[in-house]
UniProtKB/TrEMBL annotation:
Its cofactor is heme. One of its GO terms (cellular component) is membrane. It is found in: Membrane. The lineage of its organism: Eukaryota, Viridiplantae, Streptophyta, Embryophyta, Tracheophyta. The chain crosses the membrane at residues 6-26. GO terms for molecular function: heme binding; iron ion binding; monooxygenase activity; oxidoreductase activity, acting on paired donors, with incorporation or reduction of molecular oxygen. It is a single-pass membrane protein. The keyword Transmembrane applies. Keywords: Heme, Iron, Membrane, Metal-binding, Oxidoreductase, Transmembrane, Transmembrane helix. Heme binds at residue 428. Belongs to the cytochrome P450 family. This is Cytochrome P450 90B1. It comes from Dendrobium nobile.
């Protein structure tokens, strides 16, 4: 039967292929190969793409390197950063998923340098229950009741103090002024240190060195920024410790207790001295650098958008006029609630300026998302900046347009994708304080002054955001 033989002969290769695929199918089912997001395979050992990723770029962009990676691989790609295999996410959905699954699928995982400088009890590096209890102290300290009654008047006092030192027609660094303002405010609220006092100024100088180390390579060799920062850390801790010592003294002498964070923390008898020190230091860090940059960025973006300044000024003049008519002095919560356009300006500043550009996480289980596998132990970086500057989500994302936040305006940004303060169980504990600081500062700024840049400057991401020239401005009083 030659015909049958021929047919079998012809079918044989197809049958073999079929068997092969069937076998492959069974094998795959028993041992699936992970479907990793795409990314470059060949990379330098250890450093990988870290340098390219961290290369400084304009703060209002995601940077050439990341733009290139997204164009090539999509919004979720794999890389090698900070010495670990990493999934980088510029995808709004994945970013939300990561933050919401903190403690279940993902966990906060900052580089060693941050833990070394901020301390092992810092809220930024702690996970689990200990994080939760430290977080509660911070949240209680910045509760709504305290924001209204204590922090708001304090912010206004510090604003007026800062603004009253400005001379007309003399160029000064708005960034330095913003840093001084938020530092003094935090130093006052954390441990009742008064602005301008020598001790406060000394602490502030120390803190600048400290900051440089947080963002540097963790090389503890003589002369490196990291080792200088470790020295600053112990100098700062010594100041806080001295304050603690004074407190226990005062308590013995039955003096009036200070209503500051140190006072609160001391009352929490469960905390050790070491824990209190790290808590205070990390709050000083979290609350100072971020909100001062946000304020400097607001001043910068507004300078380039006279129409927004005009509308802001009208909003604040109405508030000021009403206060005058009622014979009231000092802003209160009701006034703050009237600052609606100011909130649009703040949101737009954070969207375009991206003070905190990304956060560090790692997968603590094998995770599947959108068809991709993220293996347990891999680092994951949700990059908020990339979402906030995504033209699929925001019309003309490079434009400073506070009106996009107005209710009912067309092209309004969906809040779902806007995460300047992170999200989930680690959502910024100080976001309400930060907004209050900026709004109150803006109130006095726009009703008293016009301002202009005296030299071109622009915010850069190093990746921490900074104005290289310090944002030099000069002001003119409004008649
Ligand atoms: C505009 C200014 C601010 C921005 C953009 C900002 C942003 C953020 C972000 C993105 C996180 C999350 C970090 C992570 O998930 O790993 C965070 C956490 C935190 N922020 Fe802010 N922040 C600002 C101002 C403040 C202020 C004024 C304070 C006051 C002390 C503060 C205190 C904290 C604390 C304590 C945490 C840790 C929360 C936790 O781990 O549970 N922040 N912030
Ligand atoms: C600003 O953004 C926050 C989310 O962080 C949102 O809840 C709020 O409604 C926004 N404000 C305005 C005026 O759109």
């Amino acid at each position: 039967m030659p015909i049958l033989q021929n047919i079998l002969f012809l079918l044989l290769p197809s049958l073999l292929t079929l068997f092969f695929y069937f076998y492959l199918f069974l094998w795959k089912r028993s041992k699936p190969t992970p479907n990793l997001p795409p990314g470059r395979r060949c990379q330098l050992p250890f450093f990988g793409e870290t340098f390219a990723y961290l290369k400084s770029h304009s703060a209002t962009t995601t940077g050439h390197f990341m733009q290139h990676q997204i164009a090539r691989y999509g919004k979720i790609y794999r890389s090698n950063l900070f010495g670990d295999p990493t999934i980088v996410s510029a995808d709004a959905g994945l970013n939300r998923f990561i933050l919401q699954n903190e403690g279940r699928l993902f966990e906060c995982s900052y580089p060693k340098s941050i833990g070394g400088i901020l301390g092992k009890w810092s809220m930024l590096v702690l996970v689990g229950e200990m994080h939760q209890s430290m977080r509660m102290i911070a949240l209680n300290f910045m509760s709504n009741a305290r924001l209204r009654s204590i922090l708001l008047p304090e912010i206004e006092r510090h604003t007026l103090l800062a603004i009253s030192s400005w001379k007309e027609d003399v160029s000064f660094s708005a960034q330095d002024e913003a840093k001084k303002f938020t530092f003094n405010l935090m130093a006052k609220n954390i441990m009742s240190m008064e602005p301008g006092e020598m001790e406060t100024e000394k602490l502030r100088k120390e803190y600048i060195t400290f900051m440089k180390g947080v963002v540097s390579a963790p090389l503890n060799l003589p002369g490196t920024p990291y080792s200088k920062a470790l020295k600053s850390r112990s100098n700062i801790l010594r100041v806080i410790e001295k304050k603690m010592g004074e407190r226990s003294h005062e308590r013995n002498e039955e003096k009036e207790e200070e209503d500051d964070l140190l006072g609160w923390a001391l009352k929490q008898s469960s905390l050790s001295k070491e824990q209190i020190l790290d808590l205070l230091l990390s709050l000083l860090f979290a609350g100072h650098e971020t909100s001062s940059m946000a304020l400097a960025l607001t001043i910068f973006f507004l300078e380039g958008c006279p129409k927004a300044v005009q509308q802001l000024r009208e909003e604040h003049q109405i508030i000021a006029r009403r206060k005058m008519e009622r014979g009231e002095t000092g802003l209160d919560w009701e006034d703050y609630k009237q600052m609606e356009f100011s909130q649009c300006v703040i949101n737009e500043t954070l969207r375009l300026g991206n003070v905190v550009r990304f956060v560090h996480r790692k997968a603590i289980q094998d995770v599947r998302y959108g068809g991709y596998d993220i293996p347990c132990g891999w680092k994951v970086l949700p990059v908020f900046a990339a979402v906030h500057l995504d033209s699929d989500l925001y019309n003309e994302p490079q434009q400073f347009n506070p009106w996009r936040w107005q209710r009912c305006s067309s092209g309004a940004a969906s809040n779902n994708n806007f995460m300047p303060y992170g999200g989930g169980p680690r959502l910024c504990a100080g976001s309400e304080l930060a907004k209050l600081e900026i709004a109150i500062f803006l109130h006095h700024l726009v009703i008293k002054f016009r301002w202009e840049l005296t030299e071109p400057d622009c915010a850069y991401a190093f990746p921490f955001v900074e104005f290289p020239k310090g944002l030099p401005i000069k002001v003119h009083a409004i008649a």
